[in-house]
Specification:
Largest sheet: 9 strands, mixed
Structural class: alpha/beta
Order of helices and strands: HEHEHEHEHEEEEEEEHHHH
CATH class: Alpha Beta
Radius of gyration: 20 Å
CATH topology: Rossmann fold
Oligomer: single chain
CATH superfamily: Class I glutamine amidotransferase (GATase) domain
């Protein structure tokens, strides 16, 4: 006998399922393998949580986010990544190699699983050294000592990881207090801090920006110390669609006091929620409007030219 249920009961049931799904915690894999340089905020002391992990634990409790931390690239597979809504990368170097931190690298199949995860609708957020990962024309673990090849834009010929992320790290100068302007205060987590952030940080210089970026922060280079910043303003944080997925990046996050700050934690939570489809935002490209000279790269220093 075919059972019939009242239409109102069916609707209530569907609404209950929708509410239950949206109420589930956001599941984030915090991946911190460093085949290149390993930053202090992600170092684990005898297996104890790193500085950034401790911050994320508290952030997760406030924002209903569950973080799983790993440095083991060998785990990457479609089945493993399917456990998560968003991948949060604070990584460096060629992640397919063991490299500096001696943790297993991502296999060829695992790297394909990563790209498929994002292209098929997963979220991806990169922090700081994530843009120092999978450089165009660089393979084999740590950083190339000269890196002259970084001082050009490759466009369509850039490494697939660079194109997914939306940009690539070149170099950084001395840590200093500088200004990053907030170019989209309506993006989740970027409101409530005025039009600019004046912060002491290790400021990355970046290039090979994908044309579809929704730029969220712009580095204001005027008056900055060091030749690495002898260039026009350029994007420092952004969001972009990638296939069916969502990608965001913030070059900040080197220093412990930056991780401690309300603005950084707010921006990070907002990017994770947007990437995980828990928040919406206008991601209409604005690269040419807010950083029209973004493609101009600083000249390489003498030690790189040698």
């Amino acid at each position: 006998m075919k059972l019939r249920y009242p239409r109102s009961l069916v609707i209530l049931s569907l609404l209950a399922c929708a509410v239950s799904a949206s109420a589930a915690p956001l599941r984030v894999l915090y991946f911190t393998k460093s085949s290149g340089y390993e930053h202090s905020v992600i170092k684990q002391d005898n297996g104890n949580p790193s500085y950034s992990e401790k911050i994320l634990t508290k952030l997760g409790e406030r924002e209903d986010i569950v973080f799983t931390t790993s440095k083991d690239g060998s785990k990457f597979s479609p089945e493993y990544l399917a456990q998560f809504d968003v991948l949060l990368f604070y990584t460096s170097g060629d992640l397919t190699s063991t490299g500096n931190d001696r943790h297993p690298g991502i296999t060829t199949a695992g790297l394909s699983a990563l790209f498929d995860f994002v292209a098929n609708g997963g979220g991806f957020v990169g922090l700081h050294a994530c843009s120092d990962t999978f450089h165009t024309m660089e393979r084999g673990g740590g950083n190339n000592p000269r890196r002259l090849q970084r001082y050009r834009n490759y466009g369509a010929a850039a490494d697939p990881f660079v194109k997914m992320l939306g940009g690539e790290f070149i170099r950084h100068g001395p840590q200093q207090v500088a200004i990053a302007t907030i170019t989209d205060r309506k993006f989740p987590g970027f409101d409530g801090f005025g039009d600019e952030l004046k912060v002491n940080e290790e400021w990355y210089t970046l290039k090979d920006f994908m044309p579809d970026l929704r730029v969220l922060l712009v580095m204001q280079t005027a008056g900055m110390e060091g030749g690495d910043y002898a260039r026009p303003p350029y994007p420092l944080a952004w969001a972009r669609p990638h296939g069916k997925g969502r990608v965001a990046y913030n070059a900040m996050g080197h220093r412990e006091d930056v991780w401690d700050s309300a603005y950084f934690q707010s921006m990070l939570a907002g990017m994770l929620k947007w990437a995980g489809n828990r928040a919406e935002a206008d991601v209409t490209p604005n690269l040419e409007k807010v950083a029209p000279q973004h493609a101009t790269i600083q000249a390489p220093p003498a030690e790189v030219k040698q």
